[in-house]
Amino acid sequence: MNVHRSAAVLAAAVVIGAAAPAVAASPSPSPSPPSGLYGSGDPTYDGVWRQSLALIALYRVHDQLPAAAVDWLAGQQCANGAFPAFRANPAKACDAKLMVDTNSTAVAAQALSVVGGHGGAVTKAVTWLKSVQNKDGGWGFAPGGASDANSTSVVIGALITQHTPVSTIRKGTKSPYDALLKLSLPCADKGAFAYQPDKKGKLSANADATAAAVVAARGTNFVTARADTGRETTCADATALTPARAAANGASFLAEAVAKDGYLKSALPGAEDQPDYGNTADAVVALAAQGGPEAARKPLEWLERNSAKWAEQSGPAAYAQLILAAEASGADPGDFGGTDLVKRLAATGPKQVAVSQDDDSGTSVWWVVGAGLAAGAGIGFLISGRNKRKRP
Predict the structure, then answer these.
(1) Which residue, among 212, 206, 210, 251, has the nearest Cα to 228 in the 3D structure?
(2) Helix (H, G, I), strand (E, B) or coil at 203
(3) Where are the alpha helices (H) located in the chain, listed in sequence order?
(4) How far from chain centre, in Å, is Cα 117?
């Protein structure tokens, strides 16, 4: 799942009045980033998303989770449990003018589930997500919007934090997996997932949607996705499609897509034929989660050789995304092609001293004390699959 879904979708919503993924340019930089936020770029469209990914990535490598960063994220939540992409004034109650969305809420729920002491906030977020579930069992970016594979997948990731079988969370008779599997293509179309049907109901393969859906269909999320072995990455049609079968089919599509060059290509209309670093990182996570380290080896090695400049230009969300790819595939994020991704990510946010503490479920996490805000690294808007998808 790509790191700037919020930026793209919210920008489009302002223009056309609907939450539709599109390409968005970054607004003018803020004079100074809010204290506790990772990165120095304007957080209007991606603050909650990048903050959540940063915290999850640092948690996964057992690094510091600065109290200021956790507090910033927790302070973005509205009273009803939902999160916007960015809430400029947390002291002011959320109103109808503030756009909340499923993606920001779901990723924040995943992040807060691992930081300790925020179980109530996670439950409220998940409760809100359930309240806006569509009749087909899925979710769109905006509450009530047509279900799409990426939004449904990241919400499934949030539902997993509640230790309740996703298949039991239903709107009428439909579960989230029902909505997701409707977007799975047959093997004649290489087993990919579509983002959404077009106006005529046709499904078209989408690599970013496929990576997101494979992770969700495997019953995992940003926090837990890691290399598994012994599971196939071949495509096979089935009379009764299951999440496990769809995950294998989707992984088959991704494996073929990266087989030649080791990376996924940009699908932006009119864009040059160029690598898409963010979507390639997503593919690494999906391939590792389905087929193990060997399945993800080629795109992982390509990222190790080529992603340093992209991450430096793009900021904390990119570093976090690469950490998740390395972690999921068994690589070392502290030496990723010669780059210490953990150190680079930590340098974009508040620096504090880590203290071990248990969360509500007894899982060890790293709380922090002290103060100080490091100079934030710039955050660019990633040229990635989340920015590519448009409603038909």
Answers:
(1) 251
(2) coil
(3) 5-16, 47-60, 67-74, 102-112, 119-131, 149-160, 176-181, 207-217, 243-259, 277-291, 293-306, 308-314, 316-329, 341-346, 385-388
(4) 23
Encoded tokens for 252? 């088959």
Are 249 and 191 in contact, with CB atoms under 8 Å apart?
yes
Whole-Å CA distances, 89 to 17, 72, 331: 23, 11, 39
DSSP annotation of 257 reads H
Smallest Cα–Cα separation from 30: which of 13, 12, 11, 45? Answer: 45
Residues 81, 129: Cα–Cα separation, whole Å = 8
Distance CA 12, CA 24 (A): 7
What is the DSSP pairing of strand 364-369 with strand 83-84? Answer: unpaired
Band of residue 271 on the pLDDT scale cut at 50, 70, 90: low
Sign of CA dihedral 326, 22, 52, 145: negative
**Token pair recorded at residue 181:** 């599997």
For the whole prediction, is pTM greater than 0.70? yes
Contact (Cβ atoms closer than 8 angstroms) between residue 6 and residue 49: yes
Give the burial class of 161: count Cβ atoms within 10 A of its Cβ; 0-12 exposed, 13-18 middle, 19 or more buried. buried
SS3 300: helix
- Secondary structure (H, E, C), 138-162: CCCCCCCCCCCHHHHHHHHHHHHCC
Half-sphere exposure of 42 (CA within 13 A, CB side): 13
Q: What does DSSP assign to residue 100?
A: E
Rounded CA-CA distance 265/267 in Å is 6
For the segment 163-175, what is each residue's pLDDT rounded down to a tens digit? Answer: 989 999 999 999 9
